[in-house]
Design brief:
With 275 residues, the protein is mostly beta strands. The chain has a single domain, classed as Lipocalin, CATH 2.40.128. Helices cover 0% and strands 52% of the residues. It has a 6-stranded antiparallel sheet, with no helix packed on it. Strands 3-5-26-25-24 form a 5-stranded antiparallel sheet, with no helix packed on it. The structure holds calcium ion. The site of calcium ion has 7 residues, from β6, β20 and β24.
């Protein structure tokens, strides 16, 4: 098992994967005053403990040149799928300092989108090319490639059994983790109306979270029915750059907080959801 290379070298290039080593540095940590907002609760019958409010409890520095298109958290690592001035990439990030630990560069023509961990693997998707890249999660060594069973690759998450894909419409597609073939679909609806432009998605606790562009809203979805249970509006607590939206949602089970960011955002916000 490989992990971050330590030693004095600033960067070690292994093929097209770069392992970076960082000095601890002065982390510009900002603890935001908790801003509690009461979310609007739908009238649906909840099958979970309702999220009544949320607050930003911490923020992690984020590279403002990174055009974030997907975020995941697993075993104390953040994984970001993005385009940077250096090219399209997959990155492993320290969730305390925000330092980039590993970068896997992709071909220049590709547009990276969502990323999710599945055990010891990472799966990264691309937009128009609808490719799914499978990597060893520790070394970023590529182990498989497949075509996504959707017309455009936008978001991806894992519910413990199946991959869930978004394609920018109101539809989510379930995909088998072995064959990568479609096993089902759900339509996301709010009070009977289709919710369009779903982008980044995240699964936890038998709930789906979905960012909807162009907005700063996150839909909380019951995964069996596809019905939106409530909306979280982050526009009053997150300050994204102009014309930038949420494109990174990652659930940290160890702290039971949600990590939220987007293209060129200076921070990854750590958000606590409360009853
Ligand atoms: Ca995610």
């Amino acid at each position: 098992m490989q992990d971050v290379i330590s030693g004095n070298a600033a960067a070690v290039d292994i093929g097209r994967t770069v392992f970076l080593r960082h000095e601890p540095g002065n982390r510009m940590k900002v603890i935001l005053t908790a801003v509690i907002l009461t979310a609007v609760l739908s009238s649906a019958v909840f099958s979970f403990e309702p999220i009544g409010s949320f607050s930003v409890v911490d923020s992690i520095p984020h590279d403002t040149t990174s055009e974030t298109r997907g975020l995941d958290f697993f075993e104390n690592r953040l994984y970001e799928s993005t385009s940077t001035p250096g090219g399209p990439a997959l990155m492993a990030i320290d969730p305390v300092t925000g330092d980039t630990l590993i970068i896997k560069w992709l071909e220049e023509r590709l547009r990276p989108q969502g990323v999710t961990a599945v055990g010891d693997k990472l799966i990264q998707m691309t937009f128009k090319e609808i490719l799914g890249f499978v990597y060893d999660r520790y070394s970023f060594f590529p182990v498989d490639t497949f075509f996504l069973p959707i017309v455009e690759g936008v978001g991806i998450t894992f519910d413990g059994q199946r991959l869930i894909l978004s394609d920018g419409t109101s539809k989510l597609v379930y995909v088998d983790t072995a064959s990568y073939e479609e096993t089902g679909q759900i339509q996301i609806t709010d009070d009977g109306k289709a919710v369009h432009y779903i982008s980044e998605i995240e699964y936890f606790d038998n709930l789906l979270l979905a960012a909807v562009i162009p907005s700063m809203k996150i839909a909380v979805i019951e995964p069996q029915s596809g019905e939106v249970l409530q909306w979280l509006d982050l526009s009053l607590i997150c300050r994204p750059p102009e014309r930038s939206f949420i494109f990174g949602l990652a659930w940290d089970e160890s702290t039971r907080t949600l990590l939220v960011t987007g293209p060129r955002w200076p921070w990854i916000y750590r958000v606590r959801l409360t009853e």
